[in-house]
């Protein structure tokens, strides 16, 4: 009785610690990519204000209906929402950008060109001064005149506007396009899920309150995806955990038909899950939702250990005696399963590193609870052996036809090996991540209207210092301009002329001083008179000294959100790209030092292929290690291989099935095959050793274990994440197959080699 109360108290304490300490993480990128340096560069820069922005597309339901007035009214309401920093329309240049344009005009003489040696003779051609004066007159009569007057007073040659050629669309976006786009900058971080969820509810309330009957509102942005992903993962975790736990317990209760044994098993499983969750939290600082969903399958794996004890206790044996007899087989079976899970972590895949820790500690906790806690809860408990007539019939059939079935096993292995080259592989992590298709379509609709940058595709610049990085970025910008002229690039967002290297400033100033002579100034004044413009205020052209552009205004960082990262030992810069030809961009910057084309999706998919190779290696290595442990245990390489062969056939069944169906495999399926092998070895170990002294009880326990494991992994099929669905199908098929091959390929120690 004391043992029961002590175990119950410890379990309650563990539950409290889990509730207080475990932090749930739901970002899919964390599970799929972790902090892998292959994808980190762009991801890290995108965790800025850029990621906190929402895009709101406003379209009239009836074609031709006015939308500007409604957009202005809605903009005012949105600006008052708690958690919104600011709102602006892409139909108007942001005031901060106009202010900064005036500021840049103070330095026009040192930033006007990326190629001053080539462009200065044209820009400062005296013969073209009448043309420049006429351009100045048109600018002063344009709708943007009020905003540009401070620029004109400081820079009458309009060198600033020439420098901002690549940004022209940002200052003069197309009007009367039949739609409006509002940008909403949120105060919470993009992945502050609860705060973003609350903000989205408030935004929706504003939309509902607005008189929007004649308009269609579409909202997108990183926070939208983050909140939706968390909701889907939470539903998956809840659905899978409930289905797995309740399903396994229902199967167990149906087989053993006693509530007290159910309570005893639940205690063992509670220790397993709590131990795994705490270890994961302490090691990683969080527990991912997908780890919990996968961890719920431990219920089906770890219940195997108490099942074997209970099946043998049904023969009226004392639980302590049964546990001692079975302990070597339990420890060996748990150890081989543990090896399989640890091999998952060794594959290098971030998500499965967590799963490996969760499962390893959970298995150890289940073994120890079975050994030292379970007997106290089942002593004196009336137990019944599970009834499994179909499995008993298979056992009899397998014994009668063992020779023929062994030939079938050999054929299966041969076919699986022959079909391996025909396997189709899926290395697209975006498909595996199952991003909400409705949200993806919605996001593409909005961004297609904007014609702006493509998220995750950029030119990446790195250098030991900012000056070198800027020089490299300026060289890349020239290459991108040429691609734009050729039609291989629609749009790009450079850092020039917000950031300009000191070297380029010096070159610009040198050419400026060489061309802006007293004769040039005199000709410019005459051109102003001929254009009917005021000569005195517009003829002051600085020549005293270089107006160096030094520290950037903090507001520049708002415009260049996600493009600049200055660290102690290096500087990283990004030029975002619009629609483009990846091969052309990659070739254009290939010979530039420290400059490379980055496509986050391409890099992630290359990473997926790398994970596939690692998963194949983990599958082989894990199987070999398990074989080595079995050979050591039985002091025979052949005996170890015999015990491992049913599990290998289970894995081969997975490969053959997918090859025949033509369904593509990912590295998740390879890891699933490894899991199936690690789990199936347990059945072969118990079938061979029969340590309980009762062959019938052993086989019934094996059957009950197989059913609970299959139930747990089948529950993963209820999830919406393809990762979990893939594991569900593969492990379930592999476990059933491996179990059925046990009586065919494994000879118990008390049975002759052939029957």
Keywords summarizing the entry:
disordered C terminus; 755 residues; 35 helices; Multidrug efflux transporter AcrB transmembrane fold; alpha+beta
Oligomer: single chain
Q: How much strand?
A: 5-15%
Radius of gyration: 34 Å
Find the CATH topology of the domain at 1-33 and 257-385.
Answer: Multidrug efflux transporter AcrB transmembrane fold
- The CATH architecture of the domain at 1-33 and 257-385 can be given as Up-down Bundle
CATH class of the domain at 1-33 and 257-385: Mainly Alpha
Total E-strand runs: 11
Number of helices: 35
Distance between the termini: 48 Å
Would you write up a description of this structure?
- α13 packs antiparallel against α34, α32 runs antiparallel to α33 and α32 crosses α35 (722-745).
- This protein is elongated.
- The protein starts with a helix and ends in a 10-residue tail after the last helix.
- Strands 7, 8, 9, 10 and 11 form a five-stranded antiparallel sheet that branches.
- With 755 residues, the chain is of the alpha+beta class.
- 66% of the residues lie in helices and 7% in strands.
